[in-house]
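User: what does the whole thing look like in 3D?
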Amino acid sequence: MTTERILPVAVMSLAIIILWYAGAVWLNSPQAAEALTRAGADWGTGDLIRQTFAMKRPILPTPDQVAVDLFQSLTGTPVTHIRNLLYHTGVTAGSALTGFALGVLLGVGLAVGIVQVRTLEASLLPWVIASQTIPILAIAPMIVVILGNLGFTGLLPKAIISMYLCFFPITIGMVKGLRSADPLTLDLMRTYSAGSAQTFRLLRLPASLPFLFTSLKVAVAASVVGAIVGELPTGGQAGLGARLLSGSYYGQTVQIWSALVMASLLGVTLVAVVGLAERALVRSGPGGGR
Amino acid sequence: MPAAHTAAHTAAHTATHTVAAPPPAPLVEAEGEPGREPGRTIVDIRHLTLTYQAADHPVYALSDVSLSIAQGDFISLIGPSGCGKTTLMRVIADLEQPSSGDVLVNGMTPEQARLKRAYGYVFQAPALYPWRTVERNVTLPLEIMGTPRAERQTRAREQLERVGLTGFERKFPWQLSGGMQQRVSIARALAFNPDLLLMDEPFGALDEITRDHLNLQLTQLWRRTRKTCVFVTHSIAEAVFLSTRIVVMSPRPGRILDVIDCARDLPPERTLDIRESPEFQRIAHRVREGLMEGHSYDD
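Assistant: Here's the predicted 3D structure for the full assembly of 589 residues, as structure tokens:
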């Protein structure tokens, strides 16, 4: 990264942190004032601000409170321990990635079917789109209940919910990608009297890769959301969703924010990994690998 | 009368003479000899008509077009936009279906010829695959045809050398200039050694200096390989420079106005200087007159 890119990011981050602290003062001050008054002593504006930054259960915890909590929950216990946040992140990542893998299979399979078989486009595509109009929060508990009844608990129900969110962007992107080949290149394949399978393998598939990877980035981020949503109705033993749930039971806002930060870090990491895979696999222009 | 017409038609098939207005170059009969000697008819088009339905009215893309192309010919199709020259070539390549009339390519229907990979097609745009290197773009048709890997590479290198692109095998298309990309696409069309080369305005998007250079390369390539070439162009100079015969076409309906023989007056081996010669100027003038005549129908 060059300085031209670092500077704007740094300025923006600083602005966000300042706004965050200002928000903490604003949101926490009623509670803080109450606490100070209850303590009995006289207090001024300085005391109030200090108090808003040091609440045990603030409405909005400050970045340093979240950082300290993150540090403690990452280093306080071994990684495999139930109290370690990394353990929960690992659980969520496991179901997110399983769901992502299933979503890629389903999404790509549907796209290939829709592009190669004309009747499937008319019969499948409306259902694919309709599937995404159902709120995931409503259908997630149903999936957990039904699969639990069939004897599937733990990772699989969460992975299925992730898959449900994942496959849609992949199908849509891949359908577009498989149709993105230049008409001239399609004519070219015809002049070689290439079969439909050859045209698919040598032209349509490679032409679709840039589209596929754009979709994969959206999908992998959605898979984390799906896994967390899936952890909410499972009762919350492990996973970032479980941490969010228990945090909200006990009013542990700092714990919720720590889990949120880990969830977004997980998402960013997964998107970055997909980006690296894209750079390794897709060569389609000056941005591509040399 | 219809019976007589059919009889005449059948006779024409064996006699092999063009139905277009001026007398064509003398064509040698090649009865029962599948060799590659000059004179054998490679493309035979008779009374070809192609109409398609536009929004509110039928469009006559081609109207009663007849043309015979012999082995080793370099035919240019020239005419204004919409005269059907690209359509005519796409019919030969079985990329369009004619409404009526007969087309024979190597004595087969265009579809049979396409399935036998009888021709190489060079499009207006290079149409290279951006994810493949230059060499792998040239090996693409060979891969489809199941040529073994080692032979694919040898042939690709040969063809790239032929178009002067040795040393660029590992580059990607976007690393090449437009002229070089179009040369790659010519190498790709030559890779599987088809007898017939169909070129649809391959140099249309290039600047004039590059174009002159590529014209010179193309005419040398044609002299060396003796491939039969059909070449669509907008440029009179290009057509006269490259061709043995020039087919002047006119739009609405797309038809042949004139077929001009260049091989009689211009030497087979051509350099850029011949464009200054009086013979060249005379042929160019005749082409221009033909094109203007075509336009006067519309204005």
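In plain terms: The CA atoms of residues 43 and 126 of chain A lie 63 Å apart. The interface with chain B takes residues 182, 184-185, 187-194, 198, 202-203, 206-207, 209, 282-286, 288 of chain A (CB under 8 Å).
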